[in-house]
Each structure stands twice: as structure tokens, then as C-alpha cells.
Amino acid sequence: MKSRAGITLLELTIVLAVFAIVAGAVLVGVNTRASDYRALQNAAVRLQADLRYAQRRAVMEGQRIGIHFDTVNNRYNIILSETREIIRTVYMDVNLFSVNYPSNTISFLPRGTAIPGTIALRSGNLHLPITTTLSGGQVRIHNIEEVN
Hints:
alpha+beta; single chain
């Protein structure tokens, strides 16, 4: 019997194919997570800008301006609170996971203050809470968290 030293071309091809499959799966997972992260960041920045817009408009016009969150249709409306007139409708690219405000509406008063509460956005298994505070109606974007 002859003993062989080294590997055959077929063995090398099989090892490279397995390596390519594993590397591809890892890259797809990393790319999906990065995409979810970017989507959450972009949605949070847009929502923060719209919250500040509603706050400024409430102060300038001297009337209550609200943002009503519709988690079923994944959107929010900026509204004049007294007349319920819709100023703007924004559809979200990520999921409006939960809203912790009375009637799913945050209202900015004419002096710029707001009811404190939390809005949670989700994309894939990433979760991003956004809170508003009573004093000055400040908006805070928290760190993105991973949930299972």
C-alpha cells in the first residue's frame, strides 16, 4: 500500500466551499444588524426633529400641538390639538414598538413643556427608547439595546 502525503484537489475544494458558506452566513448577519442599527438611528433623528418642530410651533403659535402615534399603521401625525387638524403625517421605516403616553399622544403646551413619557422603536432584534421630560419638553434618545 502506498501512503500519500498532502491533500487532494477534491479535499481542498470541499474545505474552501465550507469556509465560503460559513463566511457568507456571518457577513449576512453582520450586514443585517448594521442595517437595523442605521434604520433605528435615522428614525430616531427624524422623530426627534419632528418633536422639536412641534414644540417650537406650540411656543410660536401659543397653542397646544400634539403628535399622535399610530402603532397599528406604523406612523405618527403632528396635529393641532384643539381642532385635531393634521399638520403632517410621517410613516416610519422601523416599527413603532410601544408608546407610553395617554391616548398615544404627546402634547406640547404653549410654553414648550410636554407630558413625560417614552416611545420605543424596534428594528429586527434592536430596540431604541426615546423619552421626553416635563421640564422644557426635552427629548432624549437612549442607547440602542439588543433584545431577544
